[in-house]
Amino acid sequence: MRTRLISACRHFAARIVLGGTFLALAPTGIAAPANAAGDLLIAPTRVILDGRRGAEVILNNIGDEEATYRITLELRRMNVQGRLDDVDVAGANDKEKSALDIIRYAPRRVTLPPNQPQSIRIGLQAIDTLPDGEYRAHMLFRAIPKTPAADGSADSGNSLRIQLIPIYGISIPVIVRKGNLQGTAALANVRMGRDNEGPTLEFDMARQGDKSIFGEIHVTKPGQSEPLWEAKGIAIYPEVASRSVSLPLTTEVAAKMKGDIIISYYEAPEAGGGLIAQVRTVLP
Amino acid sequence: MLNKSKIALAGAIAAAALVSTGAQAATQTATAEVDILAAVQLAQNDGLDLGVVASSAAAGTVTLPTTSNTRTCSAGVTCVGTALRGRFTVSGATSGYVVGVTVPASTTLSSGANSMTLTLNPSITSFTSTGAAEVFYVGGTLSVGANQAAGTYTGTYNVSADYQ
Question: What is the pTM of this model?
Answer without folding.
Answer: 0.76
